[in-house]
Design goal:
Layout lengths: L1 E6 L5 E7 L7 E6 L10 H9 L2 E6 L21 H18 L5 E6 L1 H12 L7 E5 L6 H18 L6 H8 L20 H9 L9 H15 L1 H4 L8 E6 L9 H12 L5 E6 L12 H15 L6
Parallel strand pairs: 3-4, 3-5, 5-6, 6-7, 7-8
Antiparallel strand pairs: 1-2, 2-4
Length: 309
């Protein structure tokens, strides 16, 4: 694993990781991570993809992981949602330019799935060959129309760059509700107790996000769900939705299936969806993660263009 840095379009330097396969690069997978985590948590999955010949690349978003400077606040996007998405897109462009002849795949998880969906709509001519959307969801526009002004009010009165426990509770407070006898506030992440404890013990995970980031994320979700933006996506781009059947972010499967349906309504013709019964939010860390890895690999093998001999 190699580390690199590049300037954010918001503020500061962004930290990234690059996992190189042995031998020829058959494709590139760019991982877009979720809220209150960082890219090195994907090391096991990245190394698995390396073994199949894929180069893997990812960046820590502003306010996350190695992109948090000494004077920076965790969980804050300088410049807002579309600036953070532009940072991710810059990495896509520059990496793709370095390997123009190989297929390029976006893999977005959780908040990263919403950022990935923003890229599909805002940058439809990115040149990617396929997209995996992991742990995503769908929020009613009426709910967002009520929640975003609340976030803006908290930003104005408490400071948008300040951690907001009350907004955090509104957004994530019910996620453990269906977990029987939870041992931590983060049992909803997955069924692997060791993986959950590692998240709890990691100072770069599970922090309280700022009011500004929660406002920005909800604003981004509102953007990607609008019909006029969904219509901008490349209609033949292969899309693979994967999620746990017990993932609260995806409304226990209903939000994922709703998103799949809306993609189809928007004219997307190559959409696949798989829900993993019993799986929670972080299916890449789940007790059946090897099954998930293999499903992603098989799907990529099926949809990506084959190299001419």
């Amino acid at each position: 694993m190699e580390h690199f840095y590049y300037p954010s379009q918001g503020r500061g330097q962004l930290h990234g990781c690059r996992w190189l396969p042995d031998g020829e690069v058959r494709g590139i997978v760019q991982i877009v991570h979720g809220i209150a985590e960082y890219v090195e948590r994907y090391d096991e999955f990245a190394r698995y993809l390396n073994g199949l010949g894929y180069l893997v690349v990812a960046e820590d978003h502003m306010g996350h992981g190695g992109s948090v400077g000494e004077s920076e606040t965790k969980g804050y996007f300088h410049g807002g949602w579309f600036t953070a998405v532009a940072d991710t897109y810059w990495l896509l462009e520059t990496t793709h330019q370095a390997y123009p002849q190989v297929p390029y795949v976006l893999f977005g998880h959780s908040m990263g799935s919403f950022m990935t969906r923003t890229i599909l709509e805002k940058y439809p001519d990115s040149g990617i060959s396929a997209c995996v959307i992991c742990g995503t969801g769908w929020q009613p526009q009426a709910l967002l129309a009520g929640a975003i002004p609340v976030c803006k009010w908290v930003c104005k009165h408490d400071g948008e760059d300040q951690p907001s426990p009350k907004l955090e509770k509104i957004v994530f407070g019910t996620y453990n509700a269906r977990v029987e006898s939870p041992k931590t506030p983060f049992d909803w992440l997955n069924r692997d107790e060791a993986a959950v404890q590692a998240y709890v013990d990691d100072p770069m995970c599970g922090f309280v996000s700022t009011a500004g980031l929660l406002r920005d994320m909800l604003t981004g979700i509102s953007y990607i769900e609008k019909k006029e933006n969904l219509a901008k996506m490349k209609k033949h781009l292969p899309i693979f939705f994967i999620a746990g059947g017990d993932d609260p972010v995806g409304s226990y499967g209903k939000g994922v299936l709703k998103t799949e349906a809306e993609f189809r309504k928007a004219g997307m013709v190559n959409v696949t969806c798989k829900l993993y019964p019993g799986g929670r939010h972080e299916i890449l860390n789940e007790i059946n993660r090897q099954e998930v890895y293999e499903d992603v690999a098989k799907w990529l093998d099926r949809v990506l263009p084959k190299k001419e001999k």
